[in-house]
Amino acid sequence: MSEYVPTTEQVRMDYSYLGGYSREAEYDERQAAFDLWLADRDLAAKAEGWDEGAWHGYTTAPLDYKKNPYRVDAPHSNERQAE
């Protein structure tokens, strides 16, 4: 039997109704807050994936340095961070 995983829209709706019924403005604010959080999380995941792929690509065939288009917080984002 597979594990139940709600859709993004289901989670968004649940978050929007957090605390029960509220004014429509509060509902809209919560939806906007969720959308912002999701966009930030997606961007961070893309940036991390790019960094990891760039690191592995550079170590196997160092051809050309390409700046991570998803990372906005570091000028040399393809430099592997100490984990």
Element layout with pairings:
Elements: H1 8-16, H2 24-60
Helix pairs in contact: 1-2
Q: Would you write up a description of this structure?
A:
The chain has 2 helices and no strands. It has helices spanning 8-16, 24-60. It is elongated, with a radius of gyration of 19 Å.
Short description, anyone?
By secondary structure, the protein is mainly α.
Task: Note the main attributes of this structure.
83 residues; mainly alpha; 55% helix; elongated; disordered C terminus
- Give the termini separation: 36 Å
Instruction: Please report the number of helical segments.
Output: 2
Shape: elongated
Which bin fits the share of residues in helices?
Answer: 55-70%
Low-confidence stretches: 74-83
Mean pLDDT: 77
Strand content: under 5%
Task: Let me know the largest β-sheet.
Answer: none
- Tell me the radius of gyration: 19 Å
Order of helices and strands: HH
- What is the number of strand segments? 0
Q: Which structural class matches the secondary elements?
A: mainly alpha
